[in-house]
């Protein structure tokens, strides 16, 4: 039996179970408490186990303030092991004279990420920012993510900044432009319109194309008062339209549904959210900023760690990812395309069987569909189709495949080079080289910076890790209910948004009833009538005779001479509501009380 032992403190437990906690940081406190109590045969409280776990994690990660003292050593180790990498820190002057500067920002871009992106990634970069947790609370992580030949993410650079603003984004984008040589036209960026990002792009990249995530656009669309599934489908149809004519037709449909919604969308540049106006330089037709969302979910476990531990986890994550993709690509056949592009071609080949090609010259074909409006022009020499899907993605569409079959050529010869296995291997041929531990880092002669001022978390309880999702987003959990709920209708006025207790019509009727004549003096009968009235609303009786019989059965105060007047009253109510089954029970009570 476990007993109290004062020598077993939280510090003793932390040192005793240091390795177990380090290998299982998600160990639940209650389970940890039970194991300690059984193995040590001592009574351990829940708070004691919680303190022990926190102390063990602090011993593993090191002191938070001490990690800022080795920031210069960490930068020197990156330069030594991965030459060509960009590591830049920025500091702010201390408010106390003759004191060391305080840490403000750090930007990191490894040499292998630079070379890999330049070797074969498309000219599209997603940028995003996410909050950091734990000891880094109040700061943010900015990231730039590209896309490889298999339509997977390729993290390029990241930075820890004090907040998300125009100044921090300008600082981040300037370093990114120098690393990726973003100085010519043809580049595309995808973002969620973060704070200060648009102003930063206008200053740093005025010549690039800037796309915005359509999911965030739809959220703003709903907040502007344009909700509903019909408008949502119309908005997405306009975003997915690949031709200008199809886009104009979709906008006309939105205009018919809601002119104000069409006016709201017309204020947005179509080149920012519709495929019909996208540039074909990026060879990417994505409408969502999923590149950065995937990266943010990958680093979720690292976002609550101290700064050096956080940076090391990010480095190890990139190193392991590049190794896994390099080993995976070695099993693919040369001269082929990446697996996800193979699947796209297979789907397009199935759809191409429904079209009939008509040859115009050596390179040009007219593709006939089932209807007159389903005819398309294909130019194999310029690798273009009038539907624009081939130009946007670099993958032959179903119309192009029908023309390629008619020409008896190999479909893979018409796929853009960025999807070839050779280019994919070239992206991941470089690797992030391993680093030593802090005890072997070269010591810097520079003055160590002070940690930034601590930002207190005003919220109580456990800090949130996952992003708050909108009502129409699909959650990852299949065991929890969604936030989206069915709209409830009022049983009095049959309108959504409230119930009968808060119905204004019900309140008016009760006031009118009390002012005209007091209610019938019944007790048990009144309760029975109330329950039966609710049954009428559910089953929606449409028989006036049934209503009268029930009224006569419940109330002895109604005389036969008054039945005619009640019938006329209910018939009038029936004509007003167009159906007796929709007549509210309170109104029938009002008719009864008026006699």
From TrEMBL:
<dbReference type="GO" id="GO:0006313">
    <property type="term" value="P:DNA transposition"/>
</dbReference>
<dbReference type="InterPro" id="IPR018289">
    <property type="entry name" value="MULE_transposase_dom"/>
</dbReference>
<keyword id="KW-0863">Zinc-finger</keyword>
<dbReference type="GO" id="GO:0004803">
    <property type="term" value="F:transposase activity"/>
</dbReference>
<dbReference type="InterPro" id="IPR006564">
    <property type="entry name" value="Znf_PMZ"/>
</dbReference>
<keyword id="KW-0233">DNA recombination</keyword>
<dbReference type="Pfam" id="PF10551">
    <property type="entry name" value="MULE"/>
</dbReference>
<dbReference type="GO" id="GO:0008270">
    <property type="term" value="F:zinc ion binding"/>
</dbReference>
<dbReference type="Pfam" id="PF04434">
    <property type="entry name" value="SWIM"/>
</dbReference>
<feature type="domain" description="SWIM-type">
    <location>
        <begin position="376"/>
        <end position="408"/>
    </location>
</feature>
<dbReference type="InterPro" id="IPR007527">
    <property type="entry name" value="Znf_SWIM"/>
</dbReference>
<keyword id="KW-0815">Transposition</keyword>
<dbReference type="GO" id="GO:0003677">
    <property type="term" value="F:DNA binding"/>
</dbReference>
<keyword id="KW-0862">Zinc</keyword>
<protein>
    <recommendedName>
        <fullName>SWIM-type domain-containing protein</fullName>
    </recommendedName>
</protein>
<keyword id="KW-0238">DNA-binding</keyword>
<keyword id="KW-0479">Metal-binding</keyword>
<dbReference type="InterPro" id="IPR001207">
    <property type="entry name" value="Transposase_mutator"/>
</dbReference>
């Amino acid at each position: 039996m476990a007993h109290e032992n004062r020598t077993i403190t939280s510090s003793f437990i932390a040192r005793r179970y240091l390795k177990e906690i380090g290998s299982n940081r998600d160990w639940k406190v209650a389970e940890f408490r039970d194991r300690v109590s059984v193995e040590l045969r001592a009574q351990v409280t829940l708070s004691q186990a919680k303190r022990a776990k926190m102390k063990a994690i602090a011993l593993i990660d090191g002191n938070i303030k001490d990690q800022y003292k080795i920031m210069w050593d960490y930068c020197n180790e990156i330069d030594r092991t991965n030459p060509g990498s960009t590591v830049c820190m920025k500091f702010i002057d201390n408010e106390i004279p003759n004191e060391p500067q305080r840490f403000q920002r750090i930007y990191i871009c490894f040499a292998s990420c630079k070379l890999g992106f330049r070797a074969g990634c498309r000219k599209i970069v997603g940028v995003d920012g996410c909050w950091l947790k734990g000891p880094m609370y109040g700061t943010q992580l900015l990231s730039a993510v590209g896309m490889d030949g298999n339509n997977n993410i390729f993290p390029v650079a990241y930075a820890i900044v004090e907040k998300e603003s125009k100044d921090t984004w300008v600082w981040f984008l300037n370093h990114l432009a120098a690393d990726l040589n973003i100085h010519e036209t043809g580049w595309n960026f995808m973002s969620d319109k973060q704070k200060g990002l648009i102003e930063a792009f206008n200053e740093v990249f005025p010549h690039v194309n800037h796309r915005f995530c359509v999911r965030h656009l739809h959220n703003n669309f709903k907040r502007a008062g344009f909700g509903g599934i019909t408008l949502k489908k119309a908005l997405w149809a306009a975003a997915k339209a690949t031709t200008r004519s199809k886009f104009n037709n979709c906008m006309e449909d939105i205009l018919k549904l809601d002119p104000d919604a069409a006016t709201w969308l017309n204020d947005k540049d179509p080149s920012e959210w519709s495929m019909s106006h996208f540039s074909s330089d990026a060879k990417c037709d994505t409408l969502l900023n999923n590149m950065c969302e995937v990266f943010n979910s990958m680093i979720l476990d690292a976002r609550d760690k101290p700064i050096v531990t956080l940076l090391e986890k990010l480095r190890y994550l990139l190193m392991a990812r590049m190794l896994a993709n390099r080993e995976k690509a070695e099993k693919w056949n040369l001269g082929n395309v990446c697996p996800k592009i193979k699947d796209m071609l297979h789907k397009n080949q199935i759809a191409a069987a429904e079209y009939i090609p008509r040859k115009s010259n050596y390179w040009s074909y007219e593709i006939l569909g089932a209807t007159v409006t389903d005819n398309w022009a294909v130019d194999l020499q310029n690798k273009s189709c009038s539907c624009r899907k081939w130009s946007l993605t670099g993958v032959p569409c179903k119309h192009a495949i029908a023309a390629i079959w008619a020409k008896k050529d190999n479909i893979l010869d018409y796929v853009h080079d960025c999807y070839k296995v050779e280019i994919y291997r070239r992206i991941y041929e470089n690797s992030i080289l391993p680093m030593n531990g802090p005890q072997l880092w070269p010591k810097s002669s520079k003055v160590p910076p002070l940690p930034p001022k601590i930002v207190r978390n005003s919220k109580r309880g456990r800090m949130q890790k996952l992003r708050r999702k909108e009502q129409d987003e699909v959650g990852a959990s299949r065991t929890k209910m969604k936030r989206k709920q069915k709209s409830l209708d009022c049983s009095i006025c049959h309108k959504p948004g409230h119930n009968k207790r808060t119905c204004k019509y019900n309140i008016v009727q009760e006031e009118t009833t009390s002012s005209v004549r007091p209610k019938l003096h019944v007790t048990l009968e009144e309760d029975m009538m109330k329950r039966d009235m609710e049954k009428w609303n559910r089953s929606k009786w449409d028989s006036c005779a049934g209503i009268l019989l029930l009224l006569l059965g419940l109330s002895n105060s109604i005389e036969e001479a008054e039945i005619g007047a009640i019938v006329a009253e209910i018939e009038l109510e029936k004509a007003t509501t167009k159906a007796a089954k929709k007549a509210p029970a309170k109104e029938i009570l009002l008719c009864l009380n008026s006699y």
